[in-house]
Amino acid sequence: MRHLRIALAVAVLAGGFSLLGLAAPGCAYACSCVQPQPIAAYANEPDTLILKGTVTVYDETSHRGQLHVERWFQGSSDVADIPIQGGDGADCGLTLTSGQTLVMVAFENEGVLAPNICSPWGDLATAEGQALEAETVAAYGEGVPVPASGDTVVPTDDGFAFPMIVPIAGAAIVLIIGVIALASFVSGRRGT
């Protein structure tokens, strides 16, 4: 009986630490990148898109929205309205708002436009954004206008990302149950 009590005490202690781990916040990562190069330095990079467009719809919770492309300076698409992924700066993503018109260097990731703060971008409502637009036109010309398109659709992120602590805590619970079962089995064999 003494061994069972010890095993149960260990199990309760391990369970307490597991629950404490669930309450602890996860790691926070900050964006780390070098200063963007002048926009002309991105010429002829095959995976680099340079464009001007307006954010027509944006969901601040999922950081996803729709960008209406007005001009392509490098790269192109027949579709004027394309999904865009923003962010909060700490994840290197741009903080976007509906109605914002931007000139930017961006990359395509699984059909979604992914600009970031590590590449040149500018909000045309600011003097810096207007200067970047002038620099872009000087380097790439007037760009290619995009024909008007149909309906806009807000992309959704139906996935659920959960912290790594959840599967670790689940494994710890399974381990605790295994220890209790083993302790009960050993205790039962000694009693007979």
Describe this structure in words.
The protein has 192 residues and is of the alpha+beta class. It has 2 domains: 2-24 and 163-191; 39-145, OB fold (Dihydrolipoamide Acetyltransferase, E2P) (Beta Barrel). The chain is 33% helix and 23% strand. The chain is built from 3 helices and 7 strands. The longest helix is centred in the last third of the chain and has 27 residues, at 165-191. It starts with a helix and ends with a helix. The relative contact order is 0.21. The model is unreliable at 150-166 (pLDDT under 50).
Tally of contiguous helical segments:
3
How much helical structure, as a percent, in the residues?
25-40%
Rg, nearest Å: 27 Å
CATH topology name of the largest domain, in short, is: OB fold (Dihydrolipoamide Acetyltransferase, E2P)
- CATH architectural category of the largest domain: Beta Barrel
Structural class by SSE content: alpha+beta
Highest-level CATH class of the largest domain = Mainly Beta
| Number of separate strands | 7
Number of domains: 2
Q: Span between N and C termini?
A: 12 Å
Instruction: Work out the strand percent.
Output: 15-25%
Short descriptors:
192 residues, alpha+beta, OB fold (Dihydrolipoamide Acetyltransferase, E2P), 2 domains, 33% helix, rod-shaped
Spell out the blueprint of helices and strands.
Layout: H1 2-23, E1 49-59, E2 64-74, E3 81-85, E4 101-109, E5 112-115, E6 121-123, H2 127-140, E7 144-145, H3 165-191
